Amino acid sequence: MAIKLDLVGKKSDPIPFAYTWKDTVLYALGVGAKVDELDYLYEGRGPKVLPTFAVVPSFVSMITVAGDLGANPMMILHGEQKIILHRAIPAGAKLATVSEVKGIYDKGKGALVVVEARTADEKGEAVFDNVFSIFVRGEGGFGGDRGPEAVKADPPAGAAPDFEVVEATTREQALLYRLSGDVNPLHADPNMAKFGGFDRPILHGLCTYGFAGRALLKGACGGDPAKLRSFGARFAGVVFPGDTLTTRGWKTTNGQYVVTVTTQEGKLVLTSAIAEIG
Predict the structure, then answer these.
(1) Residues near 13 by beta carbon (within 8 Å), at least 6 away in sequence
(2) Is 199 a catalytic residue?
């Protein structure tokens, strides 16, 4: 089944998304927030909103693009994710997201689809952007441009990290995170997980991404979500609910941090990750 290459350059209609403080709290719990992060969990304090909540209102746009490609859903992988924050995310709002397929690249073993999505409020003012890539296995070899080389961001050799946050996920983590919108049964149903080649349901990549975002707030932002300007990462490995995640960050230049996330086995699961702190 050939994917639809003519999607490049096409913008979606605005996709609405309305939410309340309960949705932001549910998301925070889904990415592991604890009682000592009460600002994100209690409406009496706002609540504040985790910057990585930005992936939730735009998630439907990613699913829509994946569906429009005409590819086998079982062959689609979420490759990379980046959020760009224009201002603090409100605790409740009516937003709309417009996405555009910026390129479909021929990577030989598959096709890489790069999408930019801008989310704005009711006044049309931008709140945040998402840039995400979708890798479609088996759809390469169509003679297209290979696209730009992937950005690599490796920790400085031999240098100790500027921060390290170790946190265990729970066995129920995926079941909780999926309530924020990604209800793919791969993350809940043991039979579907086995069909996908896994012994048991796996954790959402965006849940791991959210854990890393919380670690950035603690280790690089002094707990202030307004300081996280952008955060991009590549999904490099599988996490199972119950795994322990270690997020490390190395400060580089211009307020940037190189970030990695590993499991208790030392396996890298988020790589080429760069956070901009302002």
Answers:
(1) 98
(2) no
Q: Nearest CA to 29 among 47, 14, 11, 10?
A: 47
**% of the chain residues with pLDDT over 70:** 100
205 included as an active-site residue: yes
Per-residue three-class SS string for 193-224: HHHCCCCCCCCCHHHHHHHHHHHHHHHHCCCC
Closest CA to 264 of 238, 244, 237, 247: 244
Residue whose C-alpha is closest to residue 205's, from 172, 185, 232, 234: 234
Catalytic residue among 187, 210, 232, 249: 187
Per-residue tokens: 86: 């224009």
Is residue 156 a contact partner of residue 250, using CB atoms and an 8 Å limit?
Answer: yes
Q: Active-site residue 15, yes or no?
A: no
Cis check: omega of the bond before 190, within 30 degrees of 0: no
pLDDT tens digit string along 123-154? 999 999 999 999 998 888 888 888 887 777 89
Out of 15, 134, 202, 277, which one is annotated catalytic? 202
Q: Position of tokens 């079941």?
A: 175
Our answer to whether residue 86 is catalytic in this structure is no
The angle subtended at Cα 60 by Cα 77 and Cα 142, nearest 5°, is 40
Please state, in angstroms and as integers, the Cα–Cα distance from residue 227 to each residue in 51, 62, 204, 217, following that order.
Answer: 10, 26, 25, 8
List, edge to edge, every strand of the sheet that includes 15-19.
15-19, 93-106, 110-120, 126-137, 76-85, 228-235, 268-277, 256-262, 244-251, 163-168
Q: pTM value?
A: 0.95
205, 213, 232, 249: the catalytic one is 205
| Cα distances (angstroms) measured from residue 178 to each of 33, 95, 203 | 15, 21, 9
Candidate list 23, 106, 182, 243, residue with the active-site label: 182
**How far is 241 from 175, CA to CA, in rounded Å?**
9
